[in-house]
Write a structure and sequence with these properties.
197 residues, alpha/beta, Rossmann fold, five-stranded parallel beta sheet, 7 helices, globular, binds iron/sulfur cluster
């Protein structure tokens, strides 16, 4: 039986490893769609895209479509939500996944999924609802899977392949939030050591 084409929105190379493998095991053949105007600064955006493209070409043998990256739309529709993470991320998912749905329709691909379902740091339920709503509105079929149990394997394989791995989601707000979390973890670690001394 021929594989079923699926448009897989990808946030980065490491997060694409397991979804491509698992979707192929299910009988899909993914075409990766890059649409991530959320990633700041531009040098970081380009680095993640290059990492994804080299892995897709040399290792996974999967096509990558570089779709729209409307950074002005991100500033207009997402940035005003600032540190209200839930609202901000929902708007961010909607912007990126609506571009993926546009590409799917343009290419005549009926099924759509996203690698955002790998990372335990994403708002899983919110993202699934956004994908479902957009697919319904566009006459497409959402393929929403819980890839999170495969995150440790994605981490292991991407390290083994020497892929670039970022330490924040993408936007400037997430970079600040991740830095605060790292500081808090370091402080907690120091406090625990002091107590033991
Ligand atoms: S944390 Fe990630 S998903 Fe949320 S707004 Fe920032 S880049 Fe988008």
């Amino acid at each position: 039986m021929d594989a079923v084409p699926i448009l897989l929105h990808a946030c980065c190379g490491p997060c694409s490893i397991e979804p491509v493998k698992l979707l192929r095991e299910e009988g899909f053949e993914p075409v990766i769609c890059w649409s991530n105007p959320n990633i700041q600064p531009v040098a970081e955006h380009d680095h993640r895209l290059r990492t994804l493209e080299s892995w897709a070409r040399d290792v996974a043998h999967v096509e990558v479509v570089v779709a729209g990256d409307d950074r002005d739309a991100w500033e207009r529709l997402v940035a005003p939500h600032g540190f209200d993470r839930e609202t901000r991320c929902r708007a961010c998912y909607a912007l990126r996944l609506s571009e993926a749905c546009r590409v799917a329709r343009e290419r005549g691909i009926d099924h759509v999924s996203t690698t955002l379902a790998v990372s335990p740091y994403q708002l899983f339920d919110a993202c699934g609802r956004v994908l479902g709503g957009l697919c319904r509105a566009n006459g497409l079929v959402p393929v929403w899977r819980d890839f999170r149990p495969f995150y440790p394997e994605a981490t292991r394989v991407s390290r083994e392949l020497g892929m670039y791995r970022q330490n924040y989601c993408g936007c400037r707000f997430s970079a600040a939030e991740a830095a605060v979390e790292r500081h808090a973890a370091r402080d907690a670690c120091k406090a625990a050591k002091r107590e033991l001394a």
